[in-house]
Design a protein that fits this description.
CATH superfamily: P-loop containing nucleotide triphosphate hydrolases
CATH topology: Rossmann fold
CATH class: Alpha Beta
Number of helices: 8
Shape: globular
Oligomer: single chain
Mean pLDDT: 94
Number of domains: 1
Strand order of the largest sheet: 3-2-4-1-5-6
Distance between the termini: 11 Å
Largest sheet: 6 strands, parallel
Structural class: alpha/beta
Helix content: 40-55%
Length: 210
C-alpha cells in the first residue's frame, strides 16, 4: 500500500481538492483507495456525505488512531491511502510526514501561499519523498506558474516541483457540491482540460511512488 500525505500549513491551497480528486481517480483506475480526513473542518467528510458512490472509502482520523487506520487499510488490501491534513502545524502533520511514501505540497500562486511554503518545507523536508504541485494557476496566462516555479527553485532548491500544474478551473471544485470529482464529470470540451490536468498529475504521482 502507498500512503500519500497532502500537506501544507496554509489553508485554501487545495489539499482537500487534491485528496478528493486523486482519491476518486486512483480508485477508478482499478486501485482500491481510501481518503483519510484528519482536518477538524471535515471538508472531505462533508463531501463524502453528499456522495452517492460508496467508494473510495472515507475515514476520519486523528493523531491517536492514525496508525490504526493505516494498518487496517493495509490489511484490507487497500492500494492507495490519501491523507488530507489540517492547515496548521501539529502532531498530526508530523505523523503524516513520517508515515507517507510521498508528501504532496499544493502551492497556489499568491503571496500568502508562497510565504508559507518555506515554513512548510521545514516540516516536510525529512519525508521519504516530497513534491510541490503548483495549483490554481490563472487560465489566461502561464506566466504565474512560471514565476512560482522560478521562486520555488530559487528559494527552496531542494524542494522538487512537479512539472504538472493545475489551473484555476471551476471544473475542479464544481462537482464537489454534489459529492463528485472532476474525473466523474462527462467528458466534453468544457471538462477535458481539467480532466487532462488531473490525469497528468496522477500519472506524475504514480511515477514518484514506484
Amino acid at each position: 500500500m502507498k500512503v500519500i500525505g497532502i500537506v501544507s500549513q496554509k489553508g485554501g491551497c487545495g489539499k482537500s481538492q487534491f485528496a478528493q480528486s486523486l482519491g476518486v481517480l486512483s480508485n477508478e483506475n482499478k486501485g482500491l483507495s481510501v481518503i483519510v480526513d484528519t482536518d477538524v473542518q471535515g471538508t472531505v467528510t462533508k463531501w463524502a456525505g453528499r456522495r452517492e458512490a460508496e467508494t473510495p472509502m472515507i475515514v476520519e482520523a486523528h493523531t491517536g488512531n492514525l496508525d490504526e487506520v493505516i494498518e487496517a487499510a493495509r490489511e484490507e488490501g487497500i492500494k492507495y491511502l490519501w491523507i488530507d491534513t489540517p492547515p496548521h502545524v501539529g502532531a498530526i502533520m508530523h505523523r503524516v510526514v513520517e508515515v507517507s511514501d510521498l508528501v504532496v505540497v499544493p502551492v497556489r500562486p499568491d503571496p500568502s501561499n508562497l510565504d508559507s511554503v518555506e515554513e512548510t518545507w521545514g516540516y516536510v523536508q525529512n519525508a521519504r519523498n516530497v513534491m510541490a504541485v503548483i495549483n490554481g494557476v490563472p487560465t489566461d496566462t502561464s506566466s504565474d506558474g512560471d514565476d512560482v516555479e522560478a521562486y520555488l527553485n530559487d528559494s527552496l532548491p531542494d524542494l522538487p516541483v512537479c512539472k504538472v500544474r493545475l489551473h484555476q478551473r471551476k471544473q475542479f471544485w464544481q462537482p464537489h457540491t454534489a459529492g463528485q470529482a472532476v474525473s466523474e464529470m462527462r467528458t466534453n470540451m468544457v471538462t477535458m482540460k481539467a480532466q487532462g490536468e488531473i490525469n497528468a498529475l496522477w500519472k506524475a504521482i504514480k511515477k514518484e511512488l514506484k
